[in-house]
Amino acid sequence: MDETRRDRDTEGRAHNARPRDGLGRPLPYGTPGVERQPEGVVRTPSETVGEAQRLLDAGMPFHAHEVFEDAWKSGPEAERELWRGLAQLAVGLTHAARGNATGGARLLRRGAAALTEFAGAGGPVEVADATAAADVPAATTAHGIGVGALTGWALELAARVEDADAPAVDAAAEAPRLRPDGG
């Protein structure tokens, strides 16, 4: 590949073809990387959650974010904020695992805020920090996603990674459970 030219997809749009590591960081051309998630895949909500959980458990939150992004872009309007929030949690975990505490914490909090809309039937829930997260109902969405637990996880991790002495996190060890039943 001539590195002075931009990579393009089959339709001529800019598309980075460099290999990536497990956390989505670009590697030099010719270096073996991990298989990338195909883009634009339309999955059922259950397939989306299952595939994202598999990737999170494997320590690949960047790739899980791509799965959530597909659902966000292809799903019903009423659910887009749910999938966007889940994508932000995955990217927040990615940044925390890369050692970017500020970016990780910011995205974890942004994702948690997006999910609060889905925490209960009574409408949006205000959540400012990990202490307030304890008051978020442990409700699930129609897809069985444990929104309350995920919100608490995200806010707790955000606070932990912001500690000046905190090391980068292990993405697989910190992977959240998307469904309370583990499914």
Indicate the topology.
Elements: H1 45-57, H2 61-74, H3 80-98, H4 101-115, H5 130-133, H6 147-161
Hey, roughly how much beta strand do the residues contain? under 5%
Number of DSSP E strands: 0
Helix content: 40-55%
Query: What is the chains' assembly state?
Result: single chain
Distance between the termini: 42 Å
- The helix/strand class is mainly alpha
Rg, please?
A: 17 Å
Provide mean pLDDT, rounded. Answer: 84
**Total of helices:** 6
Note the run of SSEs as H and E.
HHHHHH
Residue runs with pLDDT of under 50 for 5 or more positions: 121-137
Condensed summary:
By secondary structure, the protein is mostly helical. It has 6 helices and no strands.
Describe what this molecule looks like in 3D.
- It contains six helices and no strands.
- It has 183 residues and is mainly alpha-helical.
- The longest helix has 19 residues.
- The protein is globular.
- 38% of the residues are buried.
List keywords for this structure.
183 residues; mainly alpha; globular
